[in-house]
Please model this.
Amino acid sequence: MKNIFIAFIVLTLGLLAYSTYQGLFVAPTEQTMGEVQRIFYYHVPSAWTAGVCFFVNFLASVVYLWKRNAAGDALAAASAEVGVTFCTIVLITGPIWARPVWGIWWTWDARLTTTLVLWLIYVSYLVLRRFSAGGQAQVLAAALAIFGFVDVPIVYMSIRWFRTQHPSPVMGGGENSGLDPAMLHAFFWNLVAFTCVGIVLMVLRYRLQILEEKVEATHAAAALQGDAR
Amino acid sequence: MTGPVALKAAYIVTWVILLGYLGSLLRRFRRVRQEMKDLKRSS
Model:
């Protein structure tokens, strides 16, 4: 199993190198925005990966509430943290793109605001897990995760439901949407590479969570033994 | 901020965040493993 994971990490690094090269040097320069449009090849895959992580968090939270199994809770904790990391990238690369294109760093339009709310929801989730004492912390976190996930489809649909400053959908946005095939190639491989990075980070964070829980259980057992003596 | 500067900044920020997070995970792994070893030794 360990060898498979190492092979997967090597594959992910190769994919990252290839997709970054495609995004920076092979994909054609967009006519209106110029070079800055290439931020799209990191920004959108980061948003996609954050969405995947939050979906995993949602499923793991449902499983935890249903079965009360520790693996579900550990996966929920891991996926939320990795999701927040990718969502942070989205919230920073977006304004970096917006400044030269719109002339402003930020605007309170539906897409940007719902994404910021999404980030705040999952940061709250992590804070709740970190600082809640008592046996109900995991249950409360799972409940928050399930309600919090409602914002993910709202973020996705916001540019379809509302008139926003954020660009309209590039994929699945109707007749005038779509990408040049060379751009699509770079975009696709960045999407794959970022998804793989997300999986690698989630697996590592999941293992860390399991180890931390083992240490906590050993501490508790040692304390009980000390009390018994 | 011009286009090329923004492009470089966005790619650098992405890598710094990802590598920073990976580094924090590895540090936490090292700390937990050390704690595990200490617990085993003391028991």
Observations:
- The two ends of chain A are 41 Å apart (CA to CA).
- The interface with chain B takes residues 20, 24, 33-36, 38-39, 42-43, 46, 82, 85, 88-89, 92-93, 96-97, 99-100, 197, 201, 204-205, 207-208, 211-212, 214-215, 218-219, 222 of chain A (CB under 8 Å).
